[in-house]
Design goal:
With 561 residues, this protein is an alpha/beta fold. Helix content is 26%, strand content 24%. The chain has 14 helices and 29 strands. The strands form 8 sheets. It has a 7-stranded mixed sheet, covered by helices on one side. A 7-stranded mixed sheet has the order 23-20-21-22-14-17-24, with no helix packed on it. Strands 4-5-6-7 form a 4-stranded antiparallel sheet. Helix 3 crosses helix 12 and helix 8 packs across helix 9. The longest helix has 17 residues. The protein is elongated.
Length: 561
């Protein structure tokens, strides 16, 4: 029991403490509250895993609530994408909620605040209001409209609701304390006029509540016990509690806001505004571009829900922000794909090999294991013939003793096949090697049990039979930015660090077992990396994305640097 307690994160300790101080199991309820103004990214994945993980740990409901209070930026497309992402990650929500469900209740509560002298209509411009806010060390100045009568405020607020005024003509502000040391308590705006159609309420409303007013009140309506936010909302907690003070009744549970640190990922950006810039400027092809840190981009690239959940569990929950190296995310997807991805052979940079003592026109089918990590994965047949492709980098005319691949006079084993020996090579007019002539040992076939098949050679190469190979478009994805923290430089734009080699397209030559590969299928191209079939793929034109290389090549590059 003590060992389990030590493994709790600080949020779980808060829940455990509340359970000892009067909360019951039935009181617990959590929520994940995205704003539907963009696609979710890897940072949201941590929050999803935290909230839904708490739900699973305590057998408590978790709501999916859309904080849809800004129709200027929110769309139904984003709602559907968010629901798809949460489901894909493997979580089920108890209730699908929307802040817009509570517009009438929020309005009625605002009217009550006006009646109690705790809110007023301000007719200044946003610039004038900002200029009166003061500084952290100097108090703000009261609005000239702060002393309006309750009757006038009620009339103006109803006029705002009924659409009698243009955008920006008035706002509703809470009447708190213009001298507060917390700038957010200096008469914050609760409502603004916005003549925009809402994706759910259409034109029923032309005033919309601000996030700080909506957030705690929505938690209260849903009886959320623990409202978990990222660290930038810590200064908002005082206002969260002040707004709750105005509406809570003693017979209902009062939500509590608690904060955890945002986890930033290296070599990318997670600001929705900056991600939108990448899309609008054509740096990427869309929100689901496999180079994007969005959940839809990671899914398209071939990341698995398990790998993202394991990543979130590993980085954990903390009270201080930090940058997590993207190589840790890569590690988790490698670890998971190693267990589930079938092994296949594909050549991306082909060099022709002719086995001169293999009969012309002959073919045979070799037995190949699908996944050595999975005993139930079985095997498949791969065709072998006189003419093969190997990778260009797997042959050198001359090489030192540390080069264990093919060289003139040297031997290697072809995976699942025979031992071959390089006898000669052909070059073009520029001196580039275009073909390697080899001989093979007919008795060295893998798995045949002959003495020759048991002979040890140091190198094993992947290959494909040229007459049987199918072609596919291979998209080699790499990190989108060359800098670990591209948006941390005050003197440079984050776009200055875009990696020009983040996508390379090549033609791959693959074994024929992949002919019927379907969108989303995941495989390991032996010795090359993990790949999956892209959504652009068709039966006539297969497209594979590289999810991740077999090893972290960036770590080596950065060590050299």
């Amino acid at each position: 029991m003590a060992e389990e307690a030590r493994s709790l994160n600080f949020i779980e300790h808060i829940v455990e403490e509340d359970l000892t101080k009067g909360y019951t199991q039935n009181d617990l309820r959590f929520r994940f509250p995205p704003e539907p103004n963009g696609y979710l990214h890897i940072g949201h994945a941590s929050s999803i895993c935290l909230n839904f993980g708490l739900g699973l740990r305590y057998n408590a409901p978790v709501n999916l609530r859309f904080d849809d209070t800004n129709p200027a930026k929110e769309e139904k497309e984003y709602v559907e994408a968010i629901k798809n992402d949460v489901s894909w990650l493997g979580f089920e929500w108890a209730t699908e909620c929307y802040a817009s469900d509570y517009f009438q209740q929020l309005y009625d509560w605002a009217v009550k605040l006006i009646q109690d002298g705790k809110a007023y209509v301000d007719s200044q411009t946003s610039e004038e209001i900002a200029s009166q806010k003061g500084t952290p060390t100097e108090p703000g100045k009261e609005s000239p409209y702060r002393s309006r009568s309750v009757e006038e405020n009620l009339k103006l607020f109803k006029g705002m609701k009924d659409g009698e005024f243009r955008d920006g003509a008035h706002v509703l502000r809470a009447k708190i304390d213009m001298a507060s040391s917390n700038m957010l308590m200096r008469d914050p705006v609760m409502y603004r006029i916005l003549h925009k159609a809402h994706h759910r309420t259409n034109t029923d409303w032309c005033i919309y509540p601000m996030y700080d007013w909506t957030h705690g009140e929505s938690d209260y309506i849903e009886q959320v016990s623990h409202s978990l936010c990222t660290l930038e909302f810590l200064p908002h907690r005082e206002l969260y509690d002040w707004f709750l003070d105005q509406v809570v009744s003693p017979d209902k549970l009062r939500p509590k806001q608690r904060e955890f640190a945002r986890r930033n990922l290296s070599h990318t950006v997670v600001s929705k505004r900056k991600l939108l810039q990448l899309v609008e400027k054509g740096v990427v092809t869309g929100w689901d571009d496999p180079r994007m840190p969005t959940i839809s981009g990671l899914r398209r690239r071939g990341f698995t829900p398990e790998s993202i959940r394991n990543f979130a569990d590993t980085i954990g929950i903390a009270k201080r922000e930090n940058v997590v190296d993207v190589s840790l995310l890569d590690f988790h997807v490698r670890e998971h794909l190693n267990k589930i991805a079938p092994r296949v052979m594909g050549v991306l940079n082909p060099l022709k090999v002719v086995i001169t003592n293999y009969e012309e026109g002959k073919e045979e089918w070799l037995d190949a294991e699908n996944n050595p990590e999975d005993e139930t994965a079985g095997s498949r047949q791969v065709p072998f013939s006189r003419e093969l492709y190997i990778e260009q980098e797997d042959f050198r005319e001359e090489a030192n003793r540390k080069f264990f691949r093919l060289k003139l006079g040297g031997e290697v084993r072809l995976k699942n096949g025979y031992i071959i020996k390089a006898e000669s090579c052909t070059k073009d007019d520029d001196g580039n090697i275009t073909e390697v002539q080899c001989t093979y040992d007919p008795k060295s076939k893998s798995g045949s049990g002959t003495e020759e098949s048991l002979r040890k050679v140091k190198g094993t190469l992947h290959w494909v039979s040229i007459p049987h190979a199918i072609t596919a478009e291979i998209r080699l994805y790499d990190r989108l930015f060359t800098d670990a923290t591209p948006d941390s430089h005050k003197d440079k734009d984050f776009l200055d660090f875009v990696n020009p080699d983040s996508l390379q397209k090549v033609t791959g030559y693959l074994e024929p077992s992949l002919k019927d590969a379907k969108v989303g299928d995941q495989v390991q191209f032996q010795r090359l990396g993990y790949f999956n079939v892209d959504t652009d793929s068709t039966p006539e034109n297969l497209v594979f994305n590289r999810t991740v290389t077999l090893r972290d090549t960036w770590a080596k590059l950065e060590q050299k640097g």
